[in-house]
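User: Here's a chain of 313 residues. Predict its fold as C-alpha cells.
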Amino acid sequence: MALINSVLGPLDTKDLGFTLCHEHVMVGPPGFFRDYPELFGKNVVERLVSKLKKSKQAGIDTIVDCTTVDLGRDVNLLVEVSRRSGVNIIACTGWWLNTPAFFTDISPDRIADWFVRDIQQGIGGTSVKAGVLKGASDMGGVTAEGNIVLRALARAHRQTDVPIVLHSFPRGQVGKEQLAILTEEGVNPRRIKFDHSNDTTDVGYLVWLMQQGCYLGLDRYPGEGVPPRQRTVTMKALIDAGYAGKLCPSHDHLMSYLQPEATEDAEEGMQTNPYGLLYMKEVVFKHLREIGTSGEILGRLCVEGPRNFFEGK
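Assistant: Prediction complete.
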C-alpha cells in the first residue's frame, strides 16, 4: 500500500480498484476550455459527469488522466467531475510531443523544477497535485528536445518517487531509447510504464521491456493500424507468458475534445468507440474470455497491474 496524489487529495493504492491508466477527460489547445468553452459543445461538464457516473456504476473506480499542459489540462475541471461522479482521477504533469523551441536552450533541472512543483505544491496555483509524470517520443525516436524532457522527468521522479508514463512508438522500438536515457539518469525500470504498447504485435519486444522491469500500457482501444481483436490476442499472449501483473489495459479515450462546429452529441457521432470507458469491460474482456482467459485473470486485469505500478513492485 502507498499514498498517491489524486485530484481530490491523497489516495491509498488499496483503494484504486478497477483502474484505467491512460484516458483523457478533455483535450484541446491550452486555455481554450477556460476561454472558449462553447468549442467543446453544449453542457460539456454535465455530459462528462454523466459519462463518468455511468462508468462508476459499471465498475470503473479510477482513471489516470494523461492530459499534459500542452494538451489542455484543466485541473479545476478534473476536480469537479471527479467529485460529482465518484470516480477517482489522477492528474499528470510533464510534456507531450509539441515541445516549445526554447526547450533546446533550457536545462533538464529547470524543467524538473516545474514538474516537482506540480507534484509537491499543486498545479497552476491550485492545491491539486499531479500523481504521474508523462513524456513522449514518437516515430522519429527521441529528439533533442525529447531528450531534455526525459532527463527532466527522471530528475523530478528522483525527487518525488512519482512514476513515469511514456507515450512511445512500439513499432519502432523507441522504448529502448527512452529506457536507456531514464536508466542513465538513475530511474528504476519498475517506475516506468510504456504506453500505447498494443500498437505493435511484437510480443518479443514487449516481453523484453517487462523483463527489464517496466510496465506496459495496452491502452489503444479500439486503436488504428492494429485491429482491436489482434490487440487482444497480443494481450492474451503476454498474460500467458506470465505478465498479467505488469499490464495496464486502457483506451486512450478522449471523453471530450475541441470541435469547431461542436454540438451536444458531436462526440458520440465522431467517436470510433461507442462504449467509451466501458469498452474494456464490454468488448475486450468478452474477447479474452472467448479465447481462454480465466475469470481469475480477468478479475486481476486493470486492478493488479495499476496497483503494482503505483507501488513500484
